[in-house]
Design goal:
CATH architecture: 2-Layer Sandwich
Radius of gyration: 15 Å
Strand content: over 45%
Bound molecules: zinc ion
Number of helices: 1
CATH superfamily: Hypothetical protein, similar to alpha- acetolactate decarboxylase, domain 2
Largest sheet: 10 strands, mixed
Helix content: under 10%
């Protein structure tokens, strides 16, 4: 395990514009505010969604498409660097009109209906940068 000490920086709270892509909008805020380490939370609704599920054996993402309005019950994620840019890694739980929930890895393809978010910035002397992790095939933080 590789854990590093960080201190809390700014907190940014706001609302995403209707029709914008959920993940792209959160990433754009981090790029604009130059947040390279932190966490993100959000609630709201999307008009449709696409979620990823990582096939651990084949080491590829499979995608589930939901072509219907859904509530964002929870969105939680972290912010770090990937290829030198702020990268948001978020997972969501989404509920349909009957309260049935679906969840997974957030990818592009979820237009915002309404969304309220909180971004917490952390400051660390060493960067959290993602790189290819051979055993999993994922872009992960380094481990000791
Ligand atoms: Zn994920």
């Amino acid at each position: 395990m590789d854990a590093r000490v960080s201190t809390t920086g700014r907190r940014i709270m706001g609302r995403l514009p209707k029709g914008q892509d959920l993940l792209e909008s959160l990433t754009a805020i981090c790029v604009r505010e130059q947040i390279t380490l932190g966490e993100v939370r959000a609630i709201g609704a999307v008009t449709k969604a696409r979620l990823g599920f990582y096939d651990q054996e084949r080491q590829v993402y499979e995608y589930l498409d939901f072509d219907q309005p859904l509530e964002i019950v929870t969105l939680m994620g972290n912010i770090s660097l990937k290829d030198g840019r702020p990268f948001v890694h978020a997972h969501v739980t989404l509920a349909d009109h009957q309260g049935r929930c679906f969840g997974g890895h957030l990818v592009e393809g979820a237009p915002v209906f309404a969304c309220e978010f909180v971004v917490k910035e952390y400051r660390s002397e060493t960067a959290f940068a993602r790189g290819l992790d051979i055993p999993t095939g994922l872009a992960l933080w380094p481990s000791a």
